[in-house]
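step 3/5: co-fold with zinc ion
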Amino acid sequence: MKLKLLFALLFATHIATASNIIPEPKSFKNESGHFTITPKTALVYNSAVREAATYLLEYIPFRQILSSNKTMPGDIFLTINDFWDEEEYRLTIDKNNIRIEGGGYGGVFNGIQTLLQMMPSEIYTRKCRLPIEVPFAEIHDAPKLSYRGFMLDVARTWIPTERVKRYIDLMAYHKLNKLHFHLTDDEGWRIELKSHPEFASIGGFRGGDSPVHPRYAKFDERWGGYYTQDELRDIVAYAAQRNIEVIPEIDMPGHSKALGAIHHDILCNFEPNTASTNGLDIRNVWCAAKESNYAIVEDIIKEMSGIFTSEYIHIGGDEVDMSQWRACPDCQRLKKEKGLTDEHQIEDYFISRVTNILTKYGKKPAVWHEAIEGGLLPTSTRVYGWKSIRHCKQSTERGYPTIVMPGEYFYLDMKQSDREEGHIWAAIIDTKRLHSFDLSNYGFSAAQSRNIAGIEASFFSELYIANRPESNDYLDYMLFPRLCAVSEIAWSNSRRSWSDFYTSLRTSHYDRMQAMGIAFRLSTPEVTYADGKLSASVDDSSTIYYIDERSGREVRYTKPLECITPEYIAFRSRYGSARSRLTGSAEYLRLLTPTVTITSSMPCSTKAPLTNPAKYTNSIARTTRAAKSGDWIEYRFAEPLSCREISVQTGHIHLRRCLFLKGYAEVSYDGNNFIRTGELIEGGAVIRPTAKVHAIRVVATTRSDAENNVVIGPLRIR
Ligand code: ACM
Ligand code: ZN
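step 4/5: write tokens
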């Protein structure tokens, strides 16, 4: 009863008030009463913000709209205040007018976003009809950081223009103002170049007959795409109207396998040893010593400078495999000639050459933090600190304007809980953890703090391609509401508690995100099993469903279930297009960990050997070469095993890499004879035994591609 009352109180606040705005404004005053937008209301705008007025018209169907510096009672007025910072704004809603005053275009646009959040959430459907009521308020607001970024990797997983624009819209609703557009990587080149059309027309596709080999999923097809220059210009303009600068990234000199696959001549001058890769050249680093490479880079940058209006172009610099430069006689000669002390300084040399080209075309360099390791780059370089806070501090200490984005908080390709899809190398990051990030906790000195240029979250898309990349669902689920928390961290000085932030999410922002069409992630239901009954609850207004795995049917949960087989019953909650992860009682979640011995036809690395596999959780064994047809991995149990299900997966646990491309699984119920249970799908299989299991085996029926090893992971047994 008490809980019910609490919820009634929570959800009674479901009216637009400034305290429910995300990100939280600097100062706001609520007043009683409301302004009504009717067919008679005119939208009056200063000519400098015409584009913002056009934008607002998409959401509110004004009948009258005009450019003027004068306003009448009853109007909505968008204007500029030259004395303020560019992104500062004041939104006043009183009985006479709605007035948005901004320091510049960005300020007016930010004020518009706050105004939209003051309206009924249907406003985001762009189908809201007049009249619309807006509560009286006065909000004076400005961002903490002028760089509030999001990086989208469209190289690993192709995302076409219209869908990129949708994410630009979603960023804009959250006052994020920089789209770091990761346009090239080992798996694809996405920018049309007139000077080198084959970069995109061939390098934009992987698999099938493409020289770029498939990775991560869709192993049997040619898959991909690229943006034409017109599309890129359209994206830049679309973003600019929404106060978002697009910062393109071409990732060099490493992460260039796609380009190397179509232009071997950009690679270093040595014969690679391809014994472990079934003959395939998987090098991915530009040779630093070839003059012809700098001519190609100039072709690229010349064209990009004509497309992108940003001050900076991001040129990568991360994770360069220095062994390729060490093996290259030309790079070694260069090192000697230029007096470079090590390979990091070869990277400095490469980046400096590229910087000179950027300067020629009026652009500045932005790089991942590894690029400053050589110690020679000038402090005009903008540095993106991704590995850790320590790297961010180093960069600010050395005087570089730094974008703070440590993976353990800001990499949105990380899992959100233990049992979901996602990477884990940095951390498991749920919205609460992300929201707890506070720059002031890390001891940045005043001087270092002055070099913090901004905050950015990123989404690298290696996993997306295996998760229905033609749909937004997986990406939406990974981004929201985590990106809402990023927005608040980057914008708000007076940070509210998790509890207050979560309340504004549940009571207001869930409905807004619903109207925005986002398939966001809900918090996970709590499930318990006691006295033969399964009970589930949620802390928001979502609806709970349960699924019996034996039938696959999803049924609405209304009251505790009488149940003797809780290990088969999964729960999830839904709220419109939003959903929680699947979960269940302890009985459902329990995994069996029998003693098992793993053997293989493939030799294993001494660094990641096939020893003590019972201890494998997230650690793995690794072979010293890719698979050939006939290779096998066997898992033999110390005691015959009773279980419902055994999942076996070749390749990295969270990533379809270093796996058996094709093959089958088999099971032995007597320890000698094996019965085939089915084909591997993306390197894995689920075996549902019909008797006690002595051993299982996976067998490759084709050679693997694009990798130089096979990863052997733990079984997942239920
Ligand atoms: C990165 O995650 N390699 C920037
Ligand atoms: Zn070289």
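step 5/5: annotate
The chain has four domains: 2-141, 147-516, 526-589, 596-717.
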